[in-house]
Amino acid sequence: MRYFTRRVVLFLITLWAAVTLNFILPRLMPGSPADAALARLASTGQPITNAQRDAIQAQLGGANGNIVGQYFDYLGNIFTLQWGRSYSYATETVAHSVGRALPWTLILVGVTTIVAFVIGTLMGVYAGWRRGRAADATVTVGATFLASFPPFWLGLLLLYLFAFQLNWFPITGGYSAGTAPEWTWSFLVNAFEHSVLPAITLAVTSLSGWVFGMRNNMINTLGEDYVTFGQANGLRGRTIATLYAARNALLPNVTAFGLSLGAVVGGSVLVEGIFGYPGIGNLLYTAVTNQDYPLMQALFLVITVSMLVAIFVVDLLYARLDPRVRVGPEGS
Amino acid sequence: MTNVSVTPSAPTDIPEIDDRKVNRSHLPAPVRFVGRAVATLWRNGKARIGIVVLVLFLLVAALAPLIARQSPTSTDFIPYQHPNSINWFGTTGNGQDVFAQMVYGSRISLLVGLLAGLGATVVATVIGLIAGYRPGPVDEVLSFLTNLVLVIPGLPLMIILAAYLQSRSVWTIVLVVAFTSWATGARVIRSQASTLRNREFITSAVFSGERLSRVVFREILPNMTSLVAASFFGAATAAVMAEASLEFLGLGDPNTVSWGTILYYAQQQNALLTGQWLLVFAPGLAIALLAVSFTLINFGVDTLSNPRLRER
Amino acid sequence: MQGDSGNPTLVENFNPFSAASELGGTRLIYEPLEIASPIDGTFTPFLATDHRFTDPRTLVFTIRKGVTWSDGEPFTAADVVFTFRLLKQYPALDITGVWSVISSVAESGNLFTATFNTANVPFAATVAAVPIVPQHLWADIADPTRYANTTPVGTGPFTLSSFEPTQYALAKNPSYWQADNVAPATVLFPAQSTNQVTNQLNVVAGTYDWAYNYLPNVKDTYVSRDPDNIYWFPPGGTIGLFMNLTRAPYTDANFRKGVSLAIDRDLVAQKAVNGYTTGASMSGLVLPNQQKWLDPSLSRRGYVEQDLTAAKASFAKAGFTESNGRLVDGGGRQVSMTISMPANYSDWVTAAKETANQLGAVGISVQLDLPQAAQFQTEIQTGNFDVAMNSFAGTGLPYTDFRNGLASSFAAPINTRTVNNFERYKNRTLDQALATLAAATDEQTQREATYRLERIMYEQVPIVLLYYGGSWGLFSTRHFTGWPSAENPYTLPTSYNNSILVVLTRLKKA
C-alpha cells in the first residue's frame, strides 16, 4: 500500500510540474501571436501596415493580466476544459479544435502502435528464438534499417510514389474533400484509404524498438533455469518459445508500450504535416508556427497528461504482475 | 570518462584481453580502454558492419576535399542537371553540385550526431549515477526530472527551444538535441546504478571510507561502461534524426551544408516533381545508414553487458 | 479553386474583417465599393459606380442602384455608412486602418462621402476596398470581432452552399446585379495541406482550375502535363535588402550604393525564382506593371548593372578599401553583414545566398540568419536586425508603396515597433514629395512627384532592391477562359485576395 501511495503522490507532483512547464514553454518563444499573424499575411506577398498590426493585436486580444494571474487562470481552466480561444482560429475555442483533431490521431497512432507492437513483438520472439541464425540477423538488421529512415523522408517517398505517381492512394487529408465524418461504410473506407500511407510510415519506423526489446528479453528468458529445465524435460522448442519464454519476456515490452505512445505522437508531427492528416500532430505544428499559446498549451497538456497516465498505469500494472518491483522504487 | 585502469579491483564488463599487459607501458589508459572495447565489438558480426560503415563515413568526412572535386557552396553549375560526369549526383535548382554537398554534409551530420550524443550521454550518466546511488530525496528529484523530460513531446520541444536560442548555428542544434534526448539513457543508468549500489565491492569501498565521488565515478561507473556506451549510440542515433528533422523544417543553420539542409532545399524546390530523385533519396539514405551504423554497433555493446546476447 | 489552407482543416469563418482566419471565399460573398488593380491602380467598380475627390480631403462615391442582398433586402448607401461606422466602433475590425485617415463619413441619396483628416488622394483605393456588410443583420451582433458569420449574407456573385472542414462550396447568386458576367455555377475551396510539397503535387495532379503556387521548372512540371494548363507569373512586388539605417556603415549612402553596384540582380532572380521574374529596377517601381509612372530620365529604366569598379569607388568614398580580398574600414576591420529572413521563405533564402556570394566577392563577410517568421517580424519591427530581406511595393500605387516603405513618420526609435519603414529611413525631401503626391488630383502633378520619389530611391539607395517577387498563377482552360495574363493583365493572379472577385466576374465558359 505504501508503494501505491508513493506512486500516486509522485504522479501528482509530476503532473503539476508538466502542466507548469506547458505554461512556460510556449512563452519562451520569441515573437508574438500578432507577429505570427502578420508574418502569415506577409508570406502571401501582401503589403502589410502598422494599421493592420494594431487591428490584429486588438482582435487577438492577447493574454489578460500579468504572468502570475495568467498562470492561475490557466491552472483553474485546465479542469473545466475552458482553454480559451485559439489565436489562429479566432472564432473557435481551443477545446473544440483539440476535440476535432484528437480522434484522428488516436485512431491513426493507436492502430499504428498496436500493429507495430504486435508485429514487432512477434518478430522479436522469432528472432530471439532463432538467435544467431540467419533468420535472426535478417530480422534484426532489416528492422534496424527500416527504423533508421527519417519518418518524414519515408513519408515523402511513399507519398510521391504511391499517391502521386501510381495514384493508389489519395495525396492529402484524412478523408475526401466534400465528405463529412459519419458512421457510414463508404466514409470509413474513404478514411481508411487516406490513413494507409501515414500509418505505414509510422508503423515501419517504429517497428524496430519492439523487435529489439523482445528479442533481447527472449534471449535472457531462454537462458533462465526454468526454460533449461523445460528443455531437459523434453518440451518442444516451439512450446518453450511461445508458452514459457515469450510470455515472461513480454512484460518489459508492455511497460515500454506506455512510453512509446507519446513518442509516436511526437513523431507524428512531421508525418501528419506531410500527409495533411487532420490530427493532433498537424495541429501542434500549426500552433507552434503561429505562436498560438492557448492551442499549444492545450495540446502539450493533452499529450503529456496522457503519457503520464499511461506510465502511471503501466507502473502499477507492472508492480501487480511482478511483485519484486514493489521492493525497489522501480523495475528497469 | 575517468581513468579506468586504476581500479583493477572492480570487475569490469570488458573481458580481459591478452595484449593488455603489452599495452600498459606504451599507451595512455583511455586509448587502451577504447582499443579493448573495439576489439570486443569487432567480434560481433553486426557491430562489425556498423563499425565499417561508421569508419567509411568518418573517412568521407575527413577526406571531403579529396573526394568531391566540386565546391559544395558554388552555385555556378547548370541547375536541374541529372547525374553526369561533372556532377555525379546532378545539381540542385540553384546550380549546386549535389555530390559535393553530400560529401561535405557528412561532416555536419557526424559532428552533430557524435557531439549531441556525447552531450546527452554525459548528462544521462551524471544524473543517472547520482540518482541511482543516492536513494531518497535526491533520487526522487532527479527521477522526477527525468520523467518530466520523457513525457514532453520531443520534436515540438525542440522546435520551441531552437526558436528560443536565437543564434542559429550547428551548436544550437547540438545543444537542443543534447538537452532533449538524455532522459531515456538516464533512466536505464539509474536503475543499473541502484542495483549496483548494494553489491559487496561497493559496500566495502564505502566502508573503507572512500569519498562519494570516488565511489560513484571510480567504482560504479566502470561497471556500466557498456550501458553508457549504449546510451551514447542511442542518443547519437536520435541526434542524427533530430538534426535532420529540425533542418528539414528550416530551423537549421543556413550557412552550412548538411544532409538535413539538402533535404530542406530538395523539398522547397520540390525535387521529386522535377525528377531529381537523388536529391531526396541520397541524403535520406545517408542519414539512415549512419543511424543504422550506430544501432548495429549498439548490438555489439549490448553483448558486452549481457553475455547471453553474444553470438555463438 | 485552390484558395485556403486548412491547418489541418478549415474553420468556418466568413467574417470579412477577421484578420486571423478569414476564408478566401468571403471575398466572393461581400463586395467592396471598388477594387484598385494591384498592377497599376486602375479601379474596377463593384458597389460604387465611380468616385471623385471634390477636394483632396473629400472623397465621394456614387453608390450603385438596384443591388440587393442575397436575402432579398435592398442594398443602400446606409449600409456603406453603417459598415464604416462599425469599423470606427470596433478598431479591431479596421484591418486596413481606414480610420487612421478618415475623420467622418456621411450619405446623401446614392452618394457616400468620406472626409479625410489630411489630403490623401491615393487612399481612395483603401477606402474603396472595405467589404460592405448589411446593416439589417450586422447591427444586432453583440461582438462582431468574435463573430464567425456562418450564414453569410452579402451582395456578391456567390453564396455559401455547403461547408465541411475539408472543403466548402459557393453557389452562384442568381440575383447578383451583374449575374450575366459570372460564368461558374459553383466554386469549390478544398482545404490545403500545410506541406508545400503535398500542395504542389495536388496542383500538378490537376485538382484545381486556378491555383496559386510556386512550381520549379513550371513548363515541365505543369504545362506539359495537360494541354489546358497555362501559367502567368507576373511580378507582384520587389524583394530587397533592407539595411538597418541606424547602424554604420549603412547610414552612409555611398556604402549602400556600393552594395547596390556589387550585385548582379538578374543572376539573383535566376537563382531565387528560376528566372520567372527579373532583377528589380532601382526606381522602386514594379516594372512593367507600373510602366506609366516611370521617370524617363532614369537610365536603363532604373536597372543598376553590376559594376565592381564603380562599387569599389563608391565604397572608397564611404571610407572602405580592399585589402587582401577583404573590404576593410580605416582601422583595418573587415565589413561584416548579417542578412536575416524567415526560415520558410525559400526563394528569399536562395536570393540571400547568391547575394552573399556576390558581396563576398567584393570582400564583405556575409552571414545568413533564419529566424522563425514570427520572430523575424519582431526583430525587424523593433529594429533589432542588421540587414533584412523583405518586400517593397506591391499595392500598384506608387504613393502607398513609397509611403509604407520610406516615410519618415514611420521611422520609430529602436525598440519601438513599426511595421512600415522598419529600416528607419528619414528624408525630408521624400516626405515633401509624398505630401505633394497625396494632395495631387491631376495626373501631371502626380507624375512629377512620383519621379522625385523614384530619383531619391535611385540616388540615395535607402533599400537595395534585388528582384521582383512573383505572383504564381496556375490556370486550367478546360472549363473557363479569360484568366489574367500578360496579354490581358487586368489583375494579379492571386487567389487569396480581392483579385478573386475581379477574376470570377470576368471568366468565360470554355
TrEMBL record, chain A:
Keywords, ordered alphabetically: Cell membrane, Membrane, Transmembrane, Transmembrane helix, Transport
Residue stretches making up the ABC transmembrane type-1 domain: 102-314
A Gene Ontology BP annotation from the UniProt entry: transmembrane transport
GO cellular component: plasma membrane
Membrane topology designation: Multi-pass membrane protein
Cell membrane is among the record's keywords: yes
InterPro entries, per the entry: MetI-like (IPR000515), MetI-like_sf (IPR035906)
Subcellular location(s) of the protein: Cell membrane
Main location class: membrane
Pfam families: BPD_transp_1
Transmembrane segments: 104-129, 141-163, 183-212, 254-275, 295-318
Family: Belongs to the binding-protein-dependent transport system permease family.
Protein name: Peptide ABC transporter permease
From TrEMBL, chain B:
Keyword Cell cycle included in the entry's annotation: no
A Pfam short name: OppC_N
InterPro entries linked: BP-dependent_transpt_permease, MetI-like, MetI-like_sf, OppC_N
Membrane topology of this protein: Multi-pass membrane protein
CDD domains the record matches: TM_PBP2
Sequence ranges assigned to domain ABC transmembrane type-1 in this UniProt record: 110-298
GO molecular function: dipeptide transmembrane transporter activity
GO terms under cellular component: plasma membrane
Transmembrane segments: 49-68, 108-132, 144-164, 170-189, 220-242, 277-301
UniProt entry tagged with the keyword Lyase: no
Subcellular location: Cell membrane
This protein's UniProt keywords: Cell membrane, Membrane, Transmembrane, Transmembrane helix, Transport
Highest taxon listed in the record's lineage: Bacteria
Primary localization: membrane
PANTHER family per record: D,D-DIPEPTIDE TRANSPORT SYSTEM PERMEASE PROTEIN DDPC-RELATED, OLIGOPEPTIDE TRANSPORT SYSTEM PERMEASE PROTEIN APPC
Family named by the database record: Belongs to the binding-protein-dependent transport system permease family.
UniProt-recorded name of the protein: ABC transmembrane type-1 domain-containing protein
UniProtKB/TrEMBL annotation, chain C:
One Gene Ontology term from the biological process aspect of the record: peptide transport
Record's keyword terms, sorted: Signal, Transport
Keyword 4Fe-4S attached: no
Gene3D superfamilies from the UniProt entry: Dipeptide-binding Protein, Domain 1 (3.90.76.10), Dipeptide-binding Protein, Domain 3 (3.10.105.10), Periplasmic binding protein-like II (3.40.190.10)
Gene Ontology annotations for the cellular component aspect, listed alphabetically: ATP-binding cassette (ABC) transporter complex; periplasmic space
Pfam families linked to this entry: SBP_bac_5 (PF00496)
One of the record's GO molecular function terms: peptide transmembrane transporter activity
InterPro entries, sorted: Peptide/Ni-bd, SBP_5, SBP_5_dom
Annotated Solute-binding protein family domain residues: 43-406
Coiled coil stretches, renumbered: none
Keyword Transmembrane helix: no
Signal peptide span: none
Recorded family membership: Belongs to the bacterial solute-binding protein 5 family.
Protein name: ABC transporter substrate-binding protein
Gene source species: Nakamurella endophytica
